[in-house]
Amino acid sequence: MKRLCIPLLAAACLAPAWAQPTLTLADALHQARQDNPELKALALEAGAVEAAGRQAALLPNPALEYVREGRASEGGSTTVQLAIPLELGGKRGARMDVARADSRAAALDLAAGRARIEAEVAAAFHAAYLAQEHVALAAQVSESGRRSSDAAARRVQAGKVSPVEEARARVAEANWRIEGVAAQKELDEARIKLASLLGSEARAIGSLAAPGAPEASALRLQALVDAAPAMQRAAAEVEAGSAALKLERAQRLPDVSLIVGSKREGPERERVRQNIVGLSIPLPLFNRNQGAILAAERRADKARAELEATRLRIRAEAQQAHARMQAALQQERLVREDVLPGARYAAEAALKGFEAGKFNYVEVLDAQRTLVQAQAQHLRVLSDFYRAKADLSRLVGNLDIKESK
């Protein structure tokens, strides 16, 4: 039994990295929500603002005062009194409204940060997947170049073509191997970017579903813009500005302190106790909070102007991103359905014809270059599509989640 377990354990420990399950986009988004440090920081800030809101709801503390005048044997007095502040003008309610607005703004900051991080994760995920496809394409092209070089070598040995054909084929094969090295570098960089967003090492990327654009109606796009995290955040700023203005206006009315206590005075054997009841009222002769009120009014106006500016900016950027998605989707369909099949057929036919002695290597090389360009064009339009989709997701939230609802 031990002889059987030891090799199995060694095989499990030495299993290659590619044996791990492939990473899906849903896995990547879930991992980013759990482990991304920026999202953790935003969540902690939202918790801190919520705790500050609890503080804003607390009542002010009373003040206990003890005053002794002279000596008791000489007829001195002792006073103990309690000053209870009474907030007037709705200050506590206004303060709580400000805290609630700040808490909502912090929660929307978290939502906007989550939308941005998810868009960056989706973009990095798609970039890593396309880089993987680029590496696979480079390997395929390199293999095709090797076949061409071997065929050219056999024809040179048979005396059917000049050695120049073989040299040309070897040069083309070397260039495609160089392309494979560049593709691997691109893949490494994409995986590093994805790992930095996930907070851990990124695995191999699984397959992607066929690209599809969201519903193209202007009404649907406008609904997404209206519900965008940045729009909600700007609206929360307007709400916070109104609450802050209400609080500053409430500060015009001074608070009153109710004073209750007891005073004892006179010689020790003849001391007299007197109850004390009073009010302490600040006189708003100079400071009526007028400067703070004016500043709050200006900030409230600024928040409303920024809301409109945000609406115009997001609408324009969303329309541009959606247009890029539609254009890339049409290009991808044309390349996949019309360009790639013909290029593959021409490259395979040229290579077979060259091996049979019907074509020269220049024709083979031209057909292979056409195929490589078509495949690279397909990857490029896919990259354009996913970049535009990530830009739109950053503006209006995760499109994959919205479309699945």
TrEMBL record:
Question: Which named protein is this?
Answer: TolC family protein
InterPro entries, per the entry: MdtP/NodT-like, OMP_efflux
From the UniProt record, list the coiled-coil ranges: 293-324
Give the Pfam families listed for this entry. OEP
Signal peptide range equals 1-19
The UniProt keywords, alphabetically, are: Coiled coil, Signal
Membership in a protein family: Belongs to the outer membrane factor (OMF) (TC 1.B.17) family.
Q: List the molecular function annotations (GO) for this entry.
A: efflux transmembrane transporter activity
Question: Which Gene3D superfamilies does UniProt cross-reference here?
Answer: Outer membrane efflux proteins (OEP)
